[in-house]
Amino acid sequence: xxxxxxxxxxxxxxxxxxxxxxxxxxxxxxxxxxxxxxxxxxxxxxxxxxxxxxxxxxxxxxxxxxxxxxxxxxxxxxxxxxxx
Length: 84
Known about the structure:
Layout: H1 16-32, H2 37-73
Helix pairs in contact: 1-2
């Protein structure tokens, strides 16, 4: 079974790095233009789910860092922990 055929439910078990690596492979395959239409649709759908998973992981990390910063310095601005 390839990465793109693993059920979406299994995405939640992926680390950020694993999900990002799969997403990068999907983007490369889509950009190559070599995938048949049906496969392109399937992997695009998986890519969207992987993107959402990565965003969720990043937000959780941002909140964790913000909590650490606030815990160490007291009343630190939330802006201090933003990763923009």
